[in-house]
Fold these 2 entries.
Entry 1:
Amino acid sequence: MELSDVHLDYPVRGGGLLRRGERVRALVGADLTIAPGETVGVVGESGCGKSTLARVLVGIARPTSGTVSHRGRELWAMPPAERRAAIGAGVGMVFQDPATALNRRLTVHRLLRDPLDVHRRGTPAERDARVRELLGLVGLPAHAADALPGQLSGGQRQRVAIARALALEPALLVADEPTSALDVSVRAQILNLLLDLRARLGLAMVFVSHDIQTVRRMSDRVITMYLGRIVEESPAARVTGQARHPYTRALFSATPGLLDPIEPIPLTGALPSATRPPSGCPFRTRCWKADGRCAESMPDFRDADGETPGGHRFRCHHPVAAEETTHQLVAQATEAKERSA
């Protein structure tokens, strides 16, 4: 799957006459390539465009401009029936809350068989056999097929949702906050299940989450989003201490640690409006490194020193130096905040 210069705007709902005609810039110039078998993690604050990116990848949301390519073909240039077949069979999605993602009036058997019926996979007997196979794949007993979603626990419902997403043997699984609606005790089980399925089935995966340390654990590569833009792309092993974009470093510094607890890098102000983003780099209004140049233009992607092109890249006029520690960045940001007070 590949995104090239994807933009997606939504009209503002409500707000009266003063906001009529305004649009939310949910995605701005998104470029992303997902290789077979690769897991890409997506991090960022609420409202940064993570879920919108996921919806574009599975064909739920159509970009305002730009291209979405599936196996080398432009998705939205396909006839509707061909597009539904390509996405339905090639990409699966696990939504945030299984309680709302699953039809509570249908049995688990019906929920898992529906994709097979719609896409006419095999004979009726083969479809029933596939349902039993899917239940075993996600660790549910055979008798769960007769249950309604309301009769299952939250973790069991999410296992059903994962099984449904895998029913047509997709090459790519998009998981949008798959554990956020679950109890803490169940989250690890679902994450381990996803890791196991990735290894057994050779799945590519896009993993969206607010849990930054979980994203690092699950992913091969991590992208950081801010106000609809991808601002950094980094190998997962480097994202905590060697990220180059100030926002990525601030985001990961806010994650508590047991062995080395640290004060988060302080940022000034709240996330700007997605309808009226700042000029130039949108992070400049909260960044301790920002200057006049940042207000003039959004920087292009540049590769980190010593990295192969595309391996680690970021968009920043004044990136964090590779050798700078989080302790040093906290001191810099605190000093800048005091100067501006």
Entry 2:
Amino acid sequence: MLQSLGLGPTEEAVYTALLARPTASAQDLVRQTGLDEAETTRILLDLTTRGLAAVATEARSGVSGPSDRDAGSRPARYRLTPPSVALAPILVEQRNALHRAETAFSMLTEQYRSTAAHPAGSVVEVVVGVEQVAHRFHQLQRGAQRELLVFLVGAPTAVPRDDADLSESSALDRGVDFRVVAAKDYLDGPDVARDVKAGIAAGVEMRLADSVPLKMVVSDRERAMVPLDMTDSGGEPSAIVVHRSGLLTALVQLFEREWAGARPLYATTTGVRAQPTTDQQPTEGELEVLALLLAGVSDRRAASQLGLSIRTVERRTRRLMDLAGADSRLQLGWHAARAGWL
């Protein structure tokens, strides 16, 4: 926990052990930390030098010496300097260092933008090979500060899904808006539905389309990566990286158009489900089945009353549940009431 403030694991162990005591000697802390006495003494002296601890003065014993064993005196005892006094300046300095780094990053980014009003040859960058494609993909995802737009279609070629999930998690932790349009057949891959459900729970906004025109990732609307057909690169995975240009603007507009027409995906107890399109409504025959089901009539009795086979009743019930995005008949009834089906 304190390593970010410059304390190593053993220093943190001694610091936190001392935190629980008004004062303590090296011998006291040896029993608590499991370190040997020489190492504990060295760390205490180092903490004292850095202002994080101080040599304590004990009643009727004078001021202890700088080492644990002054001749004819008790072992030196130490106390913590209040964290608000000792650690606050370190924290402030780290914040200032981060601010300086962010300022430098902004200046370099702006300078790059102003000097790279990308001439024709630098609008598109071609990347060939598994390692190079994976490297550029992770650069785009990990470098995003505001937004990631993604088309998902087909199986991964250069970047394994587990690696992509790690980059996705890192982006979400930074507060990046993450929107994904997936082709319907993308969910057919092994364990994909499980990973998609986890992504939605983590904050990814995902929608489903019958098909998407290409695989793509767009980072902060400043760079996009689009895989190329492997036959164009001798069978090796390859991709183009598109920098800010009219082509990039077109790719972003393509994403927004597909996003607007795609159906939201949401997690259910059994996996994920796409919201039905607004023009999908139950047929008259399905509503007849629904009315009997909500009245507590069994499938077999409903089939008998409607002159249908039980399999037809089950099929209509299943479609009603798909339209409602329901996992149970209870949820189906709730959705039917909310949607005004009856």
